[in-house]
Each structure stands twice: as C-alpha cells, then as structure tokens.
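Project standup — Tuesday

K.O.: blocked on the structure for the chain from last sprint. Re-posting the sequence here as requested.
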Amino acid sequence: MTKINDRLIQRYLDNQLSDKEMSEFELRVKGDPALAKEIEELKSLDLAFESVGAETFRSELQSWESEREKPGKTISLRTILSIAASFIILITASILILQPAEYSNQELYAEYYVPYPNLITARDGAVDLTLEQGMEAYTAGNHGEAIRFLTTYLNDGGEDKGAKLYLAITLMQIDEDKLASAHLMEMLTDPLYGQQAQWYLGLLRLKNNDETQTVEIFQQISGEANHYRQQEAKEIIKKKGL
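H.V.: unblocked you, prediction finished:
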C-alpha cells in the first residue's frame, strides 16, 4: 500500500473526495482486494468507536495516522488497526463486566420465594386439632386442604395468629394474591410475625410487578438491622439495579 493510497483512504472515509476522485478511487478498490479489505476494517473500527464512545482514542489514532505520513516514519496501518482492535476488545469487556446483570421480577421471585417453615406443630404443648390438620396439609403441599383447615380455624376464633401467615403463604402458592395480600397487611404490626409478613408481602409485590411497593418494602427491610431477611432484601435491591 503506497502513501498516496493511505491519504486517499482517509479522505474517502471522511467524504472529502471530489466526484471525479471518488469514481477513480472506487475503480481502484474494485481492482484491489487488499485495499477493499483495509477500507472495510477502517469502517468497522469507526462503527466500533461510536458504539463504545471512544472519541479520545479515535483522535489518538488520527494523530498516529498523521505521524505515519511524515518522512522516516514506519508505523504501519496494520499496526494501528491491531492496536485499535485490542483497545475496543478491552473497552467492550469492561462494559460487560461492569454492567449489572438484568433480572426480571419473576426470576427474582422464583429465586427468593421459599414457603415459611412449619413452626407451629414443632412447638411443645398441645395444638388445636384443626390448626394441626391445616399445618400438616401446608407442610405436605396440599394447598386446598391447608386453606380449608386454616380458614376454619381462624373463623372459629383461633388465637394463634401464625395461622393467618401460613394461610397467606398458601394463597400465594395458588395465585390468590389479592386475598393473600390482605392477610399479610393485617399481620404487619404483629410482634411475632410482622417481619415474616413484611418479607412475603414484598415478594408478592415483586411477583405482581408493583415496582413502587416492591422497592419501598425491600428498602425498609434492608434498613432494619435486626430483620431476619435484611441480607436478602439488599440482594434483591442490588439485582434490580437500585
């Protein structure tokens, strides 16, 4: 490749050729595969620079191009292209590494939703028979029976408020989200089950793509040092890019 061709390439890329020069240059490109390949590589670099916003490095390349035009300079265009390509690879890799992975609400819900363990029948002492049957069905994943027994227990004036939490979680599992939400909201101020209700309400809002409520609830949880799900709430906030 001669120097005049290098200058012509630059002028061609910058749209500085006259109509006559453009016609002559395009004829030369058609008859010179190496020249055609070089032009395509330079065009690709221009597009790559635009995609990564590397204006400073583009200017530096142009200065190198000017240097190689001076007498006695031996910087080859191939060397410049190799350096530029390496730079773009590094920039692109850095962007991919630094850019947080995107998670959908449904992916986050599937990752963090786990039914609350049955702690009622694990306690010492007698347990109401209806409540016990409801919790056995809950543990077995028999949602219909769990809902029936737990609802009966609560309607009959059962005093163990944990039954309402387990009922809400069971309702979540069969997508009865509106009713589940109502039960969880009633539990938020409960001294024994308030934190659990808040956590599952946050997951429910996440599941239903309620961004405002999701963020509000998990930010509240992440700010409570003694909350049993503080770390998980922080993780969800981070994965949502907040």
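K.O.: great, moving the ticket to review. The chain has a mean pLDDT of 81. Residues 77-98 form the longest helix (22 residues).
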